Structures are given as structure tokens and as C-alpha cells.
Amino acid sequence: MNQLSSTPDSMIELNEAFSLLRQYSAIADVSQRTKARYLDWVERCEAYYLRDEAYGLRIFSKFPAPSSPTSKFTNPATDVWYWCHGPLGLLHELSHAISCSTVVSSRQSHRSEDRRRWFRKFLHAAQCIDRMHDWWLIFPDTATGPLSKHVANRCQMKSISMVTTTFPSLLEQLCSTTAESLGAQADNRQLNCWVTPTLALETDSPESTISSVLNRCEFPPNLCDALSVHLPQRVHVIDIRHGGNIDRLVKERLCQDSIHPTAVRIYRTLDEPTVPRQRFSEIGAIEWLVIDPTEKHETSSAEIDASTSAIYNPIFTIPSIVSSSTARDWPYLTHCTRARLYEWSDQSLSAEWDRWLFHGLPDDTSPWDTLVQIAISQRLMASPDMTRNQVPTISFSAVPLPELLSRRTYRSHLRRWDWEPYGVCITQAALSIWNAREVIYGDENTWERLPPEARPWFQPRFSKNGKHDWQQEKEWRVVGDIRLRKLPWESVFFFVPTRNEAQRLSRISSWPVAVVKN
Description:
The protein is α/β, with parallel strands linked by helices. It has 2 domains: 7-290, no CATH class; 315-515, no CATH class. It has a 10-stranded mixed β-sheet with strand order 1-2-3-7-6-5-4-8-9-10, with helices on both faces. Strand 9, helix 10 (278-281) and strand 10 form a beta-alpha-beta unit. Helix 1 runs antiparallel to helix 2 and helix 8 packs parallel to helix 9 (245-254).
């Protein structure tokens, strides 16, 4: 993936590639039947592609785009080949005049306001890709891949879909393309690009090594993310999670010396929470502010305009409570609110995405919206999601609120944060009338020994992968709904991350509101 001074120098002759494939297939340590199938694939591929004039194949040892060198690809063992397949006209343009862009992102959050913000930034980045001159590099297995492919196809943009694969899978893909399918794809502005380990026959290599190379993708971890950041001239970054792969790769690219100027845009919106981006701008990234001129800041019908209404309940800061109560004597149990989730489709050509493209994302509830509904209804609603026997419960944590939020961790498998800075705190003493009890942590044997009436309070101590000890959360549960009006007024307070939100909530809430640091 070194930068190219001459694109033709990186092109592999088809005769050479098919000759190597034939030799690999002939000496691979596989059954005679499989070996015969490999050789048959090569013969058919070679005969078809070397004579066809309407459709073609190009193979590059270095992708024909200005790319930044990276230490992860200086080892010849990790070099790759790019097998580009599509109309000859597009392949000719790819070989002689290439300018590439990608849209990259960390994995999406499940929070509705984060998804709407993510989608707005994605559309803005897509509009910044030059339809006449830019190729859109798409990596289907990355966070932006499926939607990128959908938008590129719908907008008839030049794109290259890049996937990593093994040689047998590559041969199957090449052979599956028949003359009957060419007419249907004649107007397609997309190339397919398969990324494989480099084909280089070593006569002294043992058959087991050759077979391993032939049947597996021996790539570094997160290769698709690395290619999406390092290959193109322009990288549009719509979301970065601190400490994640995209964070590391973007900083890696920006810190490298490059003959060609790089362009890394990092998008943000006006309503986006403040995050530390200065480290990127200091090393060459461009911060790109996304402003929607038609955006309307609508307030919930339950909220009262701040300019005409007084604050009815006290607003305070969490440190004022902590100072009067040590962590050991923290008297409250904390319940954090979450968003009501809307399913994000992974189908690349879905009607849902078209609706989002033309009409925007549907309105879901955010943690803030959920908290507003609690304040209005004066009720905490139980859910069966946390119990094994589907008994509706409400979960709390006995960990002091500042410490709880300081532990806040992004759970990638859930694509959300484990704790949100929105919720309600209620004293343990007040919840005792609702039979609040500590969770019973244990294993399968613990569950089997528990009487049926105690099972709603059971929680496995360790996560399925054994990396997380849930006992640290000090969870408590209440079976059924909680009517806040039946609790002493002084035993309840709501909490939000900003003073502005606290003022808005205080006009709805019948209880005090605390401001916490997010």
C-alpha cells in the first residue's frame, strides 16, 4: 500500500496471475476431487476473461489511489492483491485517472438521537463526494458499508465494493459471472474488488503452507478499517469513538509523512455533545460543521417555554449531595433511563433506507424523552427484559451516582453505553415499601437452587465471555411499577447532564433536579 508514482507499474498481467493460481491449485494439499475443481475453475476463468471484450478484470499489487504508507503493511507477508472486476470502461478509468473517497465511522450507537445525528452527517458526507471525479470506496463489512452501497447505487455514483476473501471463494466469484449477466450490468457504475493475500509461488514452500495460504485470508486484524482510512485521498469521518479502531487509524494516517496532501474531514453537528477533537485538528484534520438550515427545534408539548415560566423545583449539583454523604453512606438507589430502540436494518437495498433518505429517520425516544415521560406520568414502568423468567422488574444500582457514571463504558455488542447521565435516584429506605431487594448473583447452580418467588432477583455474576463481573454494579430490583407519588417527596430526585436540561425538566417534574457531569 505504498504510494504510487506510476499506476501501470502496479498492474499484474492476467497471464501471470492465472499461471500462479494454476500452480497453487496443482500443489495444494487437498483431495484430488477438490484439486480438480480448483484447476477447472482456473481454466474456465482464464479462457473467459482473456477473450472477453465487454467485461474485464484487472489485478493490482498496489491499489491505484494515492495511499499513505503504514507500518502494518511494510511486511511482505501482509501485502495484498486487488482483483477489480467490472466494465472495461470503468476499469480503464480506474487505471489512469483515480481519485477516491471513503465515509468511515465507529460502530453506531442505538440511541435514537445519536442515530439521527449519524444519518445527517452521513448524508452530508455523501453529498461532498464528487460524482464526476471521485470513486467511492465501499467496505461492506464496516459500519458505513451497507448504507454506503445503497446510497451509491441509488445515486448512480462511481463506487468500488471491496471485500477480503480466500482464493477458492475468489475463483467461485469470478466463474459465477456469465455472459447472460453482462447486459443487465452494462449501466452499473460499480466495480467489485476482492482483496486477497499476494500470490507469489515459492518453490521451497511446504505443501501445508501453500494450502493454508490458498484456503484462508491471512490478513492483519481490522484490515477493512485500515484500508478504508489509508487507501483513499479523502476520508470523511462521521463518528469516532475515543480509543476505538477508527480513532487509532485516523491518528495514524494524520501523523504520517505523505508526498501527496491528505484530506481528513471530521464531521460534527451543532447539537452534538462536546468531544475532544482538538487532537485531530492539531495534526491536520479538518473539522466540518454540519448545519441543517431547515432544522426545527421543537419542544415537547409537556415542556413549558423557558422565557415565560418560573422554575418550580430546586436545581442542585451532585457534589453538594456527595459532600454531605460519604460513598459508604450513599443512601440512594439509581435508575438510568435509556432510549426506546428502533431497529436499524442491515439490508443494503431496503425500503426503510429509502424512506430515511427522503424523509429522515423516524422519531424514537431518547434517554431524555424517557425521563420526561417518567416526570409526566410520575411512574417508573417495569420491564421483563432483565429477568430470566420474564417477570417485569425495575433495576437500580447502589453504586454512588458520580462513581457509577465515571465507570460508564461503551458496550460494542449492544452498541450503547451501559449507563446514561439521565435518570432518577430514590432512597433505599423509601423503596423498602416496594420490596426493593439486592440482586442474587450466581451461576446456573444458584438459579436451580432458588425458589420460584426469588428468581426475579437472579442475575448471572459473569458475562458470557467471562470478562465482566456484573456484581460490581450492585444491582437492586423492584417487581412491578413504582408510583413516585406514593414516595416521600424528599426521597426522590431526577438527574440530567446539563444545567439547561435541568431547567427544562424542573418545569415538568414534581421533584428536585440534579446536574451531573457527563
